[in-house]
Amino acid sequence: MGEERILRRMKRQHGVVSRAQALADGMTRGQMKYRVRTGEWVTEARGVYRHAAIRPTALSRLLAVCLAHNALASHRSAAALHGVDGYTLDRVEIVVPSRRSLSVDGVTVHESTQMRLAGLTERRGVPCTGLSRTLLDLAAVVSRKRLDRTIDAVLRDGQLRPSHLYGVLASHARRGRDGCGALRASLDARLGDDPVPLSEWSRMVQDLLVDVGFSRPRLEYRICRADGSLIAQVDLAYPRHRLAIELDSVRYHLNRESFVSDPRRRNRLMVAGWDVLTFTWDDYINRPADLVSIVAAALGPSPRQTPAARANSRPQPPEFRGKGASA
């Protein structure tokens, strides 16, 4: 039964299996050594074997390296796995946690302090970075012209929306993070002001707050008086904390009607006992760390306000610490 399990696994995994997987499937180290010695198995990478009856391919090599080093396919390799137009599996490119100091012949190794944001997924049987993260990684290693073509391809094919790309910028924002500047410049040149609908932007801010450890704020929250009459509907809210978050965009707020009505609704909210924070697109895309810290300060250190308590008792999330590794 163990032999059958291993063979089935190898067929699923482009002909390769790791030592740990074979042991888990019931094979002994002696049995593995025997298969290598007789030529039934071929060593494909450190601690990873390929069945000699299955021809090596670009996918088997890439998967073997990922299994050998607990890595994710990334950058151009990940783009090829995702089927992005213009990328093929003509190289082996992986990402590992920083400070691993890994060197593998014929492999481009990237180190990252933001592995938890890598968006781990599987494509064609190989673990790789999510598509949004892959685009950010590519921005650090390809020319501006190729980056522009790549963004065009994923938007044209519907694989991503602009909000996904702006979202990955905000979640990874840190000084010195390679790729952020190039990706932002390409997006801004293509999309201009107000690149996403306000409702989608609200979800992006919600995701940012959740990613750094806050509870999920309510979207499009209706704040009512005791008699049930509406005071205001706000973009995001923490009702228990009576904190409203409003997002102001050039398109929807720089007009005479909003100039008059916005202060009135904020006044009504404050009279009703709600605090109101207002952020712009520039706050979200260029200063997400400030946005997060202001929300934390507004929530305050009460026992019910878990995110703020966490923010006061531990360093800021990794993506918002000062200078660090480039990926």
The general outline is elongated
The N- to C-terminal Cα distance equals 43 Å
Radius of gyration: 25 Å
From N to C, what is the helix and strand string?
HEHHEEHEHEEEEHHHHHEEEHHEHHH
Low-confidence stretches: 251-260, 302-327
Tally of individual helices: 15
Task: Write a structural description.
The chain has 15 helices and twelve strands. A four-stranded mixed beta sheet has the order 9-10-11-12. A three-stranded antiparallel beta sheet has the order 1-3-2. β10 (230-238) and β11 (243-248) form a beta hairpin. The chain is 46% helix and 18% strand. α7 (144-156) packs across α9 (180-191), α8 runs antiparallel to α9 (180-191) and α8 packs parallel to α10.
Task: Write a brief caption for the model.
The protein has 15 helices and twelve strands.
What structural keywords apply?
single chain, 12 strands, 15 helices, 327 residues, disordered C terminus, 18% strand, alpha+beta, three-stranded antiparallel beta sheet
Outline the secondary-structure elements.
Elements: H1 2-12, E1 16-18, H2 19-24, H3 29-37, E2 41-45, E3 48-51, H4 58-69, E4 72-73, H5 75-81, E5 92-97, E6 107-112, E7 121-123, E8 126-128, H6 131-139, H7 144-156, H8 162-172, H9 180-191, H10 198-211, E9 218-224, E10 230-238, E11 243-248, H11 250-253, H12 256-271, E12 275-280, H13 281-286, H14 288-299, H15 306-313
Parallel strand pairs: 5-6, 11-12
Antiparallel strand pairs: 1-3, 2-3, 4-5, 7-8, 9-10, 10-11
Helix pairs in contact: 5-6, 6-8, 7-9, 8-9, 8-10
